[in-house]
Amino acid sequence: MSKPIVAIVGRPNVGKSTLFNQIGKKRVSIVDDMPGVTRDRIYMDAVWLDKEFTLIDTGGIEFETEEKIISDIRTQAKIAIDEADVIIFVVDGRAGLTSADEDVAKILRSSTKPTVIAVNKTDSVQLEMNIYEFYNLGLGNPIGISASNALNLGDLLDEVVANFPEEVEEVKDEDEIKIAVIGRPNVGKSSLVNALLGEKRVIVSDIPGTTRDAIDTFFYKDGTKFTLIDTAGMRRRSKIEESVERYSIMRSLRAIDRADVVLILIDAPAGITEQDKKIAGYAHDSGKGCVIVVNKWDIFPNKHDKSTNRFTDDLREEIGFLQYAPVLYASALTGQRVDRVTELVKFVAEQQSMRIQTSALNELIRDAVSVNPPPTKKGKQLNILFMTQADICPPKFIIFVNNPELMHFSYLRFIENRLRESYGFEGTPLKFIVRKRTEEE
After folding, report:
1. What is the spatial distance between Cα 134 and Cα 120, in angstroms, rounded to a whole number?
2. How far apart are CA 246 and CA 30, in angstroms?
3. Alpha carbon of 77 to those of 36, 170, 344: distances in Å?
4. What is the rounded distance in angstroms from the CA atom of residue 352 to the CA atom of residue 430?
5. Is the pLDDT of residue 318 over 70?
6. Coil, helix or strand for 195?
């Protein structure tokens, strides 16, 4: 099931980005007193009362200017409203109700989406009296907050999660494998989908951004049902000029959330770019199975026997966190090695569903410790008591130790490498939780 989406909207300079950062506990949005600093929607996963959701920060909506940037911000925020499940409408308690707030409220009332009014900057008794005038917006009970001081954020989030849609589990066949095809624009995603299906089911164009929505198409191969989610190309924010492409990025991230295995397409002639790393990073952080497909290999310049080894070495160096992902050199246009895609996807799906018995894991830990004893820290020795597997897709392991603070990330990486050497886990990230437990327990 996709996470609920919460959009933060409002006119410029009311504290939307500050609120975004407080909810997410991270400094993600740029906070500045100059109106219009936040120009692109910014997305972040957040949680409240065990309810996970995706938070969207938007640029300020402004109506009294025809400047292109303000027009783009307005359109962008409208798109976020359309995509959101719940909207937080931020207003300025110090400035009071303005005509711009009323204009924004008109859009929100017409959207029919659940809206929670956050009256920001009400951090004194005198300013709390200003809350009541915002009842005139006709959007329910305003809640006074101070984003900078995290005042009353709990009350605000209680109201937000109370408006989440009912959870409906997505129906999935037992043997179905969902594949998200992701990558920069014009790397051949739609062409690969067509090649896998053996027919033109998705429009193919040389113009970046042709695919606007995530499109689901299923097919059977060797008794297995595969569902392909062809996503719009994700572009760097500085390169995005159409608001519809910003909407497409949101759909692409949702597609990754829904997928079991992600095909990360790399354009062979263009090489590995910073955007490729960011796209791959999102798939990795989401805990999805990953296969790297180097597309357009048929037109790679100066190709020779050692080209694949060199390209793979460059991939492993540039995208170091995906050392576990298999790499396939293919051409969606000519069909070269396309038949191997489903084989790799099925293999990775099996790897991320693998369970290892606790007794085998503890034998592995004993062998690992004997070969490479845990390092000491300030004279204290890390003692690993035992390890067990808690979950699959991705595989998650809990390691019980005498003191979690003594576990260095490099030693955790050593344990991960031993796990992969013994059991494979190819194509899937591994998650580790280090917990404290005494030897007497």
Report:
1. 12
2. 18
3. 12, 28, 40
4. 9
5. yes
6. helix
